[in-house]
Design a protein that fits this description.
- By secondary structure, the protein is mostly beta strands.
- The chain folds into two domains: about 190 residues, Tachylectin-2, Chain A, CATH 2.115.10.20; about 110 residues, Exo-inulinase, domain 1 (Jelly Rolls, Sandwich), CATH 2.60.120.560.
- It is about 0% helix and about 45% strand.
- The protein contains no helices and 29 strands.
- The strands form seven sheets. The chain has a six-stranded antiparallel beta sheet with strand order 20-29-22-23-24-25, with no helix packed on it. Strands 15, 16, 17, 18 and 19 form a five-stranded antiparallel beta sheet that branches. A four-stranded antiparallel beta sheet has the order 3-4-5-6, with no helix packed on it.
- The radius of gyration is 22 Å and the shape is globular.
Length: about 375
């Protein structure tokens, strides 16, 4: 496995560059993360020209001379166009079979770097470093069901910068909400889901975005059948902004497509006051191949409301508080209430955002290019 590289100025239009980090005698290049060493704590760059430092798992079990998994560092002094592997690798030696996926970020309050690492099932290990090269174990965070690709990040509650929580994240999108003091993560919630669909895994967020947003992109993992005859396999989700809000159920994570996607809108069609009943034929509209669909469903006493989007039914059962799509099911939606819903349709995917992002369903699915109907 190899690290690829793509760049974008707007999160929408991406330029693919050459491969960044290649396998070597330590193994193939598994998942990780990258930071900009602005203060040159590592000494690998300068204050004027800080290094980008990428942390990855060298998957030694896949080397031509098998060896343990270790965590390694590569750095770039030319904006990521070329990379040098650190001569002192590994920066974190073998701990346990399969230890992997280092997520690294700067912790402002303790003025040092933090690494979250998958070491074993049901827990993540937290390390600290003053210089990105020497790491020491701080604690272990218990996390039932945790498995690979950890994340740890801070969000304000309802936009209040003086009231924040940290989210500890596993590859499935399951997460814990709690507090982190630079040493220990203390959970204040049970394990919570962030995804109700079938195809979103191992996502990661950006730290220090220019406008302070917490932006996430997930891997839309699938069996690959959505991409016949293509020179690629799999895809990424649209970028999403994460926010944290108080709800009747407690603090909950919300996700919403980034505003930059709106620049892709070419034609707008608006319809309002559409009345449906079981005595009439479905309402039908001609639509484009690519859709950004926003709707509010006011159910009244309806038992079932169906939005069939280019042949894919999105089924709302308001009296049960249930939303269903492609075999996946969301439960717990307030019964009988209006449901705001947004659906993004690409050529091989559909992403559903319900209740303003409280619930998300992601699906890889090839659409029939000739099927251009929306049926209600």
């Amino acid at each position: 496995m190899t690290w690829g590289h793509a760049v974008s100025r707007d999160l929408v239009h991406w330029e693919e560059l050459g491969d960044a980090i290649l396998p070597d005698e330590r193994g193939t290049i598994y998942s990780g993360s990258a930071v900009v060493d602005i203060n040159n704590t590592s000494g690998l760059g300068t204050i004027e020209h800080p290094a980008i430092c990428a942390f990855y798992t060298a998957a030694g079990g896949h080397s031509y001379q098998p060896c343990p998994f270790t965590q390694c560092l590569a750095y770039s002094l030319d904006h990521g166009r070329s990379w040098t592997k650190f001569a002192g690798n590994p920066v974190v030696d073998f701990i346990a079979d399969g230890n992997r996926d280092p997520k690294v970020f700067w912790h402002e309050k303790t003025q040092r770097w933090i690494m979250v690492l998958y070491v074993r099932r049901d827990a993540f290990s937290i390390f600290s470093s003053p210089d990105l090269k020497a790491w020491q174990l701080e604690s272990e965070a218990a996390f039932p069901t945790a498995h690979e690709c950890p994340e740890l990040f801070e969000l304000s509650v309802d936009g209040n910068p003086h009231d924040t929580r940290w989210l500890l994240w596993s590859a499935s999108g399951n997460h814990l909400i709690g507090r982190f003091d630079g040493h220990t993560f203390t959970a204040e919630s049970e394990v919570l889901p962030s995804e109700w669909g079938k195809n979103c895994y191992a996502g990661q967020t950006w730290n220090n975005t220019p406008d302070g947003r917490r932006i996430f992109i997930g891997w839309m993992n699938s069996d690959g059948s959505a991409y016949p005859d293509m020179p690629f396999n799999q895809q990424m989700s649209v970028p999403r902004q994460f926010t944290l809000h108080r709800t009747e159920d407690g603090l909950r994570l919300f996700a919403w497509p980034v505003k930059e996607l709106e620049q892709l809108r070419l034609n707008r069609v608006t319809a309002s006051n559409i009345t449906l009943n079981d005595r009439q034929s479905p309402r039908e509209f001609d639509v484009a191949e690519l859709l950004d669909l926003e709707a509010t469903v006011k159910p009244g006493d309806a038992q079932v409301v169906v939005l069939e989007v280019r042949g894919v039914p999105v089924v709302y059962r308001p009296q049960e508080g249930v939303l269903e799509c492609l075999g996946s099911r969301i439960e717990g939606i307030p019964k009988g209430e209006s449901l705001p819903i947004r659906i993004l349709v690409d050529r091989t995917s559909m992403e559903v955002f319900a209740q303003r992002g409280r619930y998300v369903m992601s699906f890889c699915r090839p659409f029939d290019p000739g099927h251009r109907k929306l049926r209600l």
